[in-house]
Amino acid sequence: MNNFKRHNLKRNSIATAIITMGTVALTLSSYAHAQQDEKNDEDVELIQVTGIRSQLTQAVATKRDSVQFVDAISADDMGKLPDTNVAESLQRVSGVQLERGIGEGSTISIRGLSQNVILVNGRQVTTAGGRGDKGPDTLESSSYSMLSLIPSSLVSSLEVSKLPGAKEIEGALGGIVNIKTRRPLDNDGQKIVASVTGSYNDLSSDNGTEASIYYSNSFLENTLGIQVAASKASLVFQEEGLNTFSGYSYDTSVTADPNDETLVFNDIRYWEINDKRERTGLNAMIQWQPTDTLDLYIDSFYSKVDSDRDRFWTGFWTCCGYDNTEISDNGVLTSASVNRPVQTNTEFAPAFTEFTSTAIGFKWYSDDWEVNGELAYTDSTSNSQQDFMRFQTAEAAEVDFNLLAGDDAPDIIFGGADLTSPEGLNLAIIYDNTAHDETTDTAVRLDFTRYFDSDFFTSVEFGARANSLETDHDYVARAMTPNFAITALPQIYTMYSNSNFFSGDGPAVNEQYLVVDKSKWQGCTTLSEFYDAAQTAECATTHDLSPSYDIAEDLLAFYTQANFSSEWGGYDITGNFGVRYVQRDLTSKGHSEDVATGAATPFTTDVSHSELLPSAVLKMDLTDDVVLRFGAARTLTFPNTSDLSSGIFVRGDYTASGGNPELDPFVINQLDFSAEWYFGESSILSTGVFYKDVESFIVNTIQPRDLPNYSQQVFVEQPINGESGTIQGLEVLYQQAFTSLPGFFENTGIMATYSYIDSETPFEDGRGNSLPIPGLSENNINMVLYYEIESFGVRLAYNWRDEYLSHLGAGDNGVFYKSYQDLAATANYKINDNVSLNFQAVNLLDTRQKQYAAYEEAIQRNVEFGTTYKLSVSVNY
After folding, report:
1. Burial environment of residue 398 by CB neighbours within 10 A (0 to 12, 13 to 18, 19 or more)
2. DSSP codes, 333-350
3. Cβ atoms < 10 Å from Cβ of 777
4. Mean pLDDT computed over 194-216
5. Which residues contact 42 (CB under 8 A, 6 or more apart)?
6. How far lies 263's CA from each of 12, 244, 289, 336, in Å?
7. Residue 673: how many other CB atoms lie within 10 Å
8. What is the DSSP letter of 552?
């Protein structure tokens, strides 16, 4: 049974499970509602809700009061989100799916789409590489995304808008995430909150520290406020297990029949990553209300992550002369013997990424008018270095491998190769690469609201926003194959040791082998006295034009939106309708570089595009407790910045790769409906359905092009606009505080979400099988259980997401992540009104993250991160 048939069978079983879950939820809710009705007839003592229940109550109130389709997460105390970081908190929202970097959540998809807008206090921010950037990561993971840059201790609340109105910033196909910090005039007088945290990871056996402080004060009869918030964290993240760079490809030499294409694991690696990160965050704001009708503010946010990452692994290249072969029914080579050189590999990859975002704004209002204006400037920068060195045996060894030997942990035997001795090892490869990215964004907006005293229209909003976005990408690649005998060099090696590598499930050879000594390596110049003229010239390279680019975008948007409130058929209705106009002018600068001659020809491409984006939403209050919402919108986002490069790298065989600045934007026409039952202060049962018609996806293709200085057409691999597709789904949210239950249970509660998302796309693998949107799990479940009394609370948070497509690998194989589950626990104890203790345990299940190519026996990733424990002390005055 192939992978795609399994998907269909699984849908039926999941549907049955969801019907069951919904029935249980309705039963529990009905019971609670009945109990609450009984209590409404009695005199009930008013109790101030704090802690976990307070966070959930605020989230329900935000959703209930909003006209738009909005979900919210609030800090249960000042500077204390319910999860370890912003991304992991967002996964608690139905329809939001989390992608993990090394040991922590880092990026999200909303309703299966990663093209989302991130705001800080309402202004857009982006990382150094522009749209779609995952940061300076040689592994192409998401460890340095925007959400990983924002310390959770500085956050007051998160809001996710899934259907944007006309007045909201364009660019979100999935949704808009607004990360809110506190404002100084939210509190009267002085407020100080500080916390210190110690952490321990059981995989790396390393300790970490975190500290944060928040200070605010108000003056001049609470008309002038200042606040400063800062955080500092020093943490170690570790990953151990199986991974790959090249993945799988088809090989016709495995069998005697040249027509047989066998799927072969090319590059089997068992590695350890040790990533030490220093994270700094600062937020400062001044707020002044000189009159009753004017509010002025200056808001600045700064964040920086410094990473010092080391990666060590053993490996070999699977190729040629296969013996003792075993091939699965799906044509996967699961076991064989080959004669190949074997390797130990070292990578040192220090990197930093930072951004500063500052805004100056005002709000003026009268009985009939409100005017808001803001000027914002954001500067994001990243820089990364990759030093990669390979030790390789001078002679081939007999390598035996078996993909099915363990629980997705292939067994590998390197024959007589000794990777613990320099004898017989050569320094085979040296990479010394650097990358620098910077994005600046200058934005100005002016918004007007005219209020009416009418039976239908309550206000009309209109305004404009202009922003200028510029991204520079510079890259230097230095690659040498010296093939020096290690014994003929200065001692640049040391011994890597890990007696319990991958919890003992990895091959024994991975517990000890020679790697490059970090203290003795200074980049490619370390061994410059041994280089020939060509190697000396390569090491001196200062710029690489073909992958470098400069992209400038000027965007101008105008909008108008009418808001209404009335009664229809005996029901209260509120809503809005409007339209947004967006104009973009793009200038993309790059080069076409000939690998044979090194000659570079500059390219500049100018593109303009405009779009009208209508939207409408209607909220109907059937009763005080039951709400229906209907919405429709046309949304867009422009392509990832790196896809818009004019740069083209031409190889010697008249093939090339590059970007495509003439890509049209993604455009989606969207419909939404939800039914929501608010049966208590912090209780809700809601169900929503949505449909997205995607007018065009972006796909990679190879097309012939006429390029300067070439006598024939060059076949260029680049992204183009492909065929259309659809996304549709179901979202369920159930949240309840069981205050009506007896005894112990009256202090408990639950929050559970489920989403089912399906897609139809033009994406196909090499065998013509349809593929879903990358990053989209059909099924996603989150559940939070808590117990809380006045001075003590405990919270368990569970997440499970279905398997999902990662990307298309070699041989056009779909590369899938297997399903993943996670459990975290939090306990807090309030010593007194000012001091509290908090304990967290993250990744309690220590689930391994697994990935396969096309078929489940073609495993290509299986890694673990360990469990992290945190203990903190918080002081609040």
Report:
1. middle
2. EEEEEEEE-EEEEEEEEE
3. 22
4. 94
5. none
6. 30, 15, 68, 13
7. 15
8. E
Band of residue 29 on the pLDDT scale cut at 50, 70, 90:
very low
pLDDT at 140: 56
Q: How many CB atoms lie within 10 A of CB 243?
A: 23
According to DSSP, residue 332 is labeled B
Structure tokens at 440: 């600046």
Q: What is the pLDDT of residues 324-372, one digit of tens each?
A: 999 999 999 999 999 999 999 999 999 999 999 999 999 999 999 999 9
CA pair distance 616, 68, nearest whole angstrom: 9
Torsion of CA 567, 570, 571, 574, to 10 degrees: -10
Please say whether the beta carbons of 359 and 375 come within 8 A: yes
Q: Using pLDDT thresholds of 50, 70 and 90, give the confidence band for residue 53.
A: confident
- Give residue-wise pLDDT tens across range 703-750: 788 877 777 788 888 888 888 899 999 999 999 999 999 999 999 999
Residue 37 DSSP label: H
CB 617 within 8 A of CB 67: yes
Of 56-60, 298-302, 539-543, 816-820, the least confident: 539-543
Q: Minimum mean pLDDT among 36-40, 176-180, 251-255, 418-422: which range? A: 36-40
Write down the pTM of the prediction: 0.88
Collect all residues with Cβ–Cβ distance below 8 Å to 754 and sequence separation of at least 6.
18, 21, 94, 730, 731, 732, 779, 780, 781, 782
The confidence band for 699, taking pLDDT boundaries of 50, 70 and 90, is: confident
| Res. 784: pLDDT tops 90 | yes
pLDDT, residue 338, reads: 96
Statement: residue 441 has pLDDT above 90: yes
315: closest CA among 356, 368, 267, 253? 267
Q: What is the dihedral of CA 57, 61, 62, 65, to 10 degrees?
A: 180
Of 799, 729, 714, 791, the closest CA to residue 759 belongs to: 729
DSSP-assigned letters across all residues of 74-116: E-SBTTB-SSSSHHHHHTTSTTEEEEE-SSSEEEEEETTB---
What is the phi/psi pair of residue 86, to 5°? -60, -45
Architecture of domain 3-876: Beta Barrel (2.40)
CA dist 614 and 634 (Å) reads 6
Spatial separation of the C-alpha atoms in residues 674 and 512, rounded to whole Å: 57
3-state secondary structure of 847: coil
How far the first Cα of the chain sits from its last, in Å, is 62
User: How many Cβ atoms sit within 10 Å of the Cβ of residue 175?
Assistant: 27
Residues 313 and 187: their CA atoms lie apart, in Å, by 53
Count Cα neighbours of 845 within 13 Å in the Cβ-side half-sphere: 13
